[in-house]
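thread from #wetlab-drylab

HS: before we spend reagent money on co-crystallization trials with D-mannonic acid, can we at least see a predicted complex? here's what I'd submit
DV: go for it
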Amino acid sequence: MPRILHFGVGNFFRAHQAAYTQDTPGWRITGVSFRSADVRDGLADQGYDYALLIKDAHGTAIKRITVLDHMLVAPEGPQAVIDAVADGDVQVITLTVSEKGYHLTPDGRLDLSHPAVSADLAGGPLTPVGALVRGLAQRRDPVTVLSCDNLPENGSKLARAVHDFASAAGIDITINVTFPASMVDRITPATTDTTRAEASDLMAVPTEAFSEWVVEDHFAAARPDWPGVQWVDDVAPYEMRKLRMLNGAHSYLAYAGTLRGHTYVHEAVADPDLRATTQALMAEAAQTLPAEVQLQAAQYSDDLIARFDNPSLHHRLRQIAMDGSQKLPIRILASLAARTSDSPALEAAVAAWIGFVQAEVAAGRTLDDPMADQIALACRASDAKGALRALIGAS
Ligand code: CS2
């Protein structure tokens, strides 16, 4: 039976790609964790099945996900992960390893000086990119590698990172492998005790009813017939719209909302000042989008506000606030760079991030961000705002 190998078995994958595959007869999934064994242990205890709690303003529907049937943990057995990449039954390798999981430089190359990358090159713990390179080098059959992370041009970025790692390691990849781009969307909070109790399932995942997946139709091997996927030649317009409008607004709400004492997205977006700035931010971002999606941007913005208003999701602002140094350049600075007129709402998002990190550092809390140390240092500079802006590449 054809198989998908998935890197990064977090809640987003379990609410999105796993749910689509659940509705696609004939496919099974092997998951890979690059960090702890916790998710594998929790899922293995219940035969890898779990409940997806689909929440809208009217209530909760439960969908059982039974399509995942095996999981590997890279730190426990790196060779098993490499062998899985090389396995001929695997037709598609999907990834949700988050922005920082690719270890890219700001100009989109593999950061060879990153400690995790140099350790992997020296035979230490596997990174997702290193696992791909080592496994692809052993493969005999074509395969598709599909990034499902919130990065612009995620397919070509991953292809370049794989190429950079392979050249640095002196490894040849000779099989046909494609790296289509994709835009993924489904708001998926973290699991809490309330979620677990609601579903009587320790591994339950909460999510919203809305779901979208736009995929570049460039597959080297069998392509799952995922129902509802939009197959396109060019993902870029959809991806820009989603990153700049949804994710940009999310990050603004996360920082500005936390600063105003809110806990959840639905609370922050109900705050009249924040709601107005969120709408203005989406309008500013929309003006930077390609013509084909600009026309529907006003409707898209209204639909996003309705999704953020969802009172049942309980999506914590602090979950979105993490990794700001990785997210802001993509979600906010890209729009700012493309704009030719004043952008008060986008600037308010940069200011909200600065205010948030300064407040966290002043309170003695360690930031959940790969650049936490540099951010803390910049907060102590005499021109802290300038230093923080420079750190994320804001002019
Ligand atoms: C959020 C995203 O945590 C975050 O950074 O903005 O996870 C967002 O919920 C998803 O991209 C929605 O598809």
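DV: Residues 150, 185-187, 247, 250, 319-320, 327 surround D-mannonic acid (CB under 6 Å).
HS: ok that's useful, forwarding to the group
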